[in-house]
Amino acid sequence: MQAVLRALGTSARFTLRLGQTVFSTALLLFMCLDVEFYSYTSFSYLVTVMGLVTPWSMSLALVDAYFVFVKGLPRQPRVLLVVIVGDWALSFLSLAATCSTASVTSLLVNVSSTYYPSNICSRYQLSAAMAFMSWFLSFDSILFNLWLLPSL
Amino acid sequence: MQAVLRALGTSARFTLRLGQTVFSTALLLFMCLDVEFYSYTSFSYLVTVMGLVTPWSMSLALVDAYFVFVKGLPRQPRVLLVVIVGDWALSFLSLAATCSTASVTSLLVNVSSTYYPSNICSRYQLSAAMAFMSWFLSFDSILFNLWLLPSL
User: Is Membrane set as a keyword in this record (chains A, B) (predicted)?
Assistant: First the structure.
């Protein structure tokens, strides 16, 4: 029973990590194929944070895939602690970046629809939506991490 | 030793709650004495969230003051759970509101210094700084709450 629950937990975490990787990569592509993002502080901040989130969740997805598909190694408490603290920090950073981006985008859409072509604004809106999805998945993984805390 | 530690913890929490109350009240005064805040989505959101944070932290400060100065009643797990979940939710909401406000303020300061009188912009900046202080204290109290989790 314990082993089945642990395997279920690991595959759920693997799915969450995969989703984070997909959304943050798509966001980076959306933002960076547009050349104007660095003229706004919040968009630059979002790209920086997502540039941290993407490799983090990609490597953890690889580790979880190894656990799921190959074999379940015993987890080491020190590694778990690093993963939990890193998840917390990245979740807070990406929430901050997401909200900044969303509010700046909404302001740009409302105020200056005459100055900007509408396709750029809708691209910013799509990026904000993807950042929210990525944050939501990372929030789910810190909730999952709460179950790992007692094993520390 | 246990009792001394618990008393120290309670007075530290009381100080944190008091700080949150002071900062969020000051922010509300700063924002609401200015009549233009409701024309921006993020400022309205910030005022809404801080209108939730102020009574929450004020009532918890009163409870903690009762614990510190009058007597230490035994804590009830159900009440503790409500406090912990509420702190988490309010901390995330206030981080989101704070970052939205900060980014919109920075955009307003950079872009439209010709349209706005500078004293309004500096008032928004002060409000954003106070929102950050209030969020920082509420983050400290959710870190303190982690010590309470094992007693649930």
Answer: yes
